[in-house]
User: Which sequence fits this backbone?
């Protein structure tokens, strides 16, 4: 009821130091059991509350979304709006980054990449790879992500999301998992849950998942297409 205090000045572009006290007010209905922690741990999504204005914090995305829903209702345009985001992501086996005063460098690698056609691999190089922009959507053995996506989908169901699709996407090392649409708050919360699960399942399998827009030059990037009704 009272919320949990935190320091708003430690979050970039939020509160000045002399008005840093803020509250997280749990939305109890969002609570779910974290599937990855050794100890039983509850995850709950919160609203941010501004104690100085005695209202929800105006920079909090959930606050903005709730104002939008109120406007929708009051405007008479419609009773409810549904949103269905499609989240695309890459899975890499190796990520190297250098960002220093005297050099800048990044390198990402996926077994899916056609640049690995001549790479020496333990057990041999089988050579089953899609070409650039050729990943939508082959079956195994070209699609090496079948089991990883299946594990991601099972964990997503475990935390309460209804998964409706999972497949390889156009780019090399790129995938997509889709969940059922919801209203603005529900759909947005689900995107946060989905990203957490996908990144953690990849991590626990020795891989790195990223939703960044354009990690590969000359191949398709990640989108978040959003269906609206």
Assistant:
């Amino acid at each position: 009821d009272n919320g949990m205090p935190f320091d708003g000045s430690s979050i970039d572009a939020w509160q000045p130091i002399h008005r840093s006290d803020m509250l997280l007010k749990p939305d109890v209905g969002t609570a779910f059991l974290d599937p990855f922690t050794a100890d039983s741990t509850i995850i709950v999504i919160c609203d941010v509350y501004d104690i100085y204005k005695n209202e929800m914090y105006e920079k909090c995305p959930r606050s903005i979304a709730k104002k939008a829903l109120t406007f929708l209702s009051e405007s008479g345009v419609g009773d409810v709006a549904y949103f269905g985001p499609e989240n695309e992501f890459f899975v890499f086996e190796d990520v190297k980054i250098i960002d220093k005063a005297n050099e800048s460098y990044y390198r990402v690698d996926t077994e899916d990449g056609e640049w690995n056609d001549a790479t020496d691999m333990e057990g041999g190089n089988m050579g089953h790879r899609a070409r650039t922009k050729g990943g939508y959507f082959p079956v195994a053995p070209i699609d090496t992500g079948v089991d990883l996506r299946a594990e991601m989908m099972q964990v997503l169901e475990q935390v309460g999301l209804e998964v409706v699709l999972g497949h390889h996407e156009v780019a090399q090392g790129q995938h997509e998992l889709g969940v059922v649409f919801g209203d603005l708050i529900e759909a947005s919360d689900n995107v946060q849950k989905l990203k957490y699960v996908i990144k953690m399942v990849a991590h626990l399998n020795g891989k790195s998942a990223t939703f960044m827009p354009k990690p590969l030059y000359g191949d398709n990037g990640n989108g978040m297409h959003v269906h609206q009704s």
